[in-house]
Amino acid sequence: MKGERQQDHNRDNGERPFKYSAADRALGVEMSQAASVASAAAEFITAEKGGIGEEPSGRAYLRRTGERPVFLVLREGQGDRPLLRDEPGTFPAGPCLIRSEEWLQTPELAGLYESWLYSEDALQAERTLQRIYYRLRAASAALLESADSIWAAVTLLHTPELAVRPGKLKELQDVQLEALFAAVAANQRLGSDSRIDLLAPYPASSAEFAVQREFIEDVAEQTLGHAYAAACSIGARIAPGMPPAAAGEIARIADFLVLDGAAEPAAPEEPAAADFVLAAEAVLAAVRRVKPAAVVLAAGAPAAGALADLYRIGMSGIFCSAGQRTEALLRAACLTWMARQDNTGTATEGWL
């Protein structure tokens, strides 16, 4: 399987999943928009060598032996960033999570999607799918023209209606990938550099994820060539209810994992956060037994609400919306600062 070969290649290159450089750990120059946030998080932001204005070199998450990596607070959604990537001050402060299901809810696509999904006329369904392709390509092009195009993690389309119709699901995902990679190819011809990573939706087992991964790689290779297919990180979006052992097996061949709190029905905030932490702890323990350097991120409303606990158990970070990010950045900065003080105090005691 391509996924297994990719895993071997990753291991040989020092566990390179979900590339991110030391300079990229700045976690968002957007914090300069709020002086209080920038002040509180100053030490957190400059933890690694390299300043906030430096250009990232390799975009690789780093995890040194015996050292806890920075806890990442990343963006979810496009609503809180400058529209154009060339505006002053934009900086690839980590991937932005783009839920492509939201594209299907736009006025341009909602009607077409419903018409295609329930059409009983094969010819009409094919024509409608072609129109969906062009709409998805326009949405992809708009993403690539935004600041988020510098680095985005895009989910493969997955809806409750499609989940029970696997043939339709694969058909629409194929169209989505073709549209996305065609937009990337057009962008490359114009000399622009964009990084798009993909998230396979809710695989139930490692075998299912391997099939999804190979599907993504095949479309990428056909559209953009082998070099891009090899460089594109492919992760798995998993639900909190997934059996931990299955998550561990998926982690063997996934470049990164996202535990998605939005995958399950909404519940009262506190119980949801508590249940989410328990699920995250079990999944993380199973994954780290298999792959100690695995990048495991959390997303959805419960993730931001449970940030302190997710930090405590050793998660790599969270994706959160614009409304949650300022508070999340402050809390992460405080937790990191307190951990450093504890470590400094322990080291000092050792000299006494």
From TrEMBL:
It comes from the Bacteria. Residues 1-21 are annotated as: Disordered. InterPro entries: Pyrv_kinase-like_dom_sf. Gene3D superfamilies: Phosphoenolpyruvate-binding domains (3.20.20.60). Residues 1-18 have a biased composition (Basic and acidic residues). This is Uncharacterized protein. It comes from Paenibacillus typhae. The lineage of its organism: Bacteria, Bacillati, Bacillota, Bacilli, Bacillales.
